[in-house]
Amino acid sequence: MAADQAEQALVERWRGVLALQARTQCEIDRALHEHGLCASDFEVLDILAQNRGSGGRSYRVQEISEHVHLSQSALSRLIARLEKEGLAERGLCPEDRRGVRVCLTAKGRALHGEVLPVQRAVLARMLADG
């Protein structure tokens, strides 16, 4: 009986985590929509803005995929869309010509700076204790 209750409590906590993540994702999407972005777009811009890629300027697509929860094809489409909008640039990886590197453009860096406080405010509100 106690084991069943403990298991049920564990499942309830897990469902609570999932619900919080879904609500937070929706709130971020809503807040960023007026800037022409969704939460996934922002996550990629945020990673690129960190300048932790090789040489401090770009990331390999595989490095980005380690930090976002998208399939490889969805990430490729997202990067292509950011590139089309002038927010990011793709180029061949000099150390491995089969690889692709991605970096922010000046326009992408400016947009990231504009929406960063918006996204962080949503996180603070949604993830506040209490």
How far apart the termini lie comes to 30 Å
- How many discrete domains? 1
CATH architecture: Orthogonal Bundle
Using only C-alpha atoms, the radius of gyration works out to 18 Å
Q: What is the top-level CATH class?
A: Mainly Alpha
Q: Indicate the multimeric state.
A: single chain
By CATH's scheme, which homologous superfamily applies?
Answer: Winged helix-like DNA-binding domain superfamily/Winged helix DNA-binding domain
Order of helices and strands: HHEHHEEH
- CATH topology value: Arc Repressor Mutant, subunit A
Number of strands: 3
Largest sheet: 3 strands, antiparallel
Instruction: Please give the count of helices.
Output: 5
How much strand? 5-15%
Contiguous low-pLDDT stretches (5 residues minimum) are none
Indicate the mean pLDDT: 90
Strand order in space, largest sheet: 1-3-2
Please identify the structural class as seen in this structure.
alpha+beta
Organism: Streptomyces haneummycinicus
InterPro entries: HTH_MarR-typ (IPR000835), MarR/SlyA-like (IPR039422), WH-like_DNA-bd_sf (IPR036388), WH_DNA-bd_sf (IPR036390)
GO molecular function: DNA-binding transcription factor activity
Protein name: MarR family transcriptional regulator
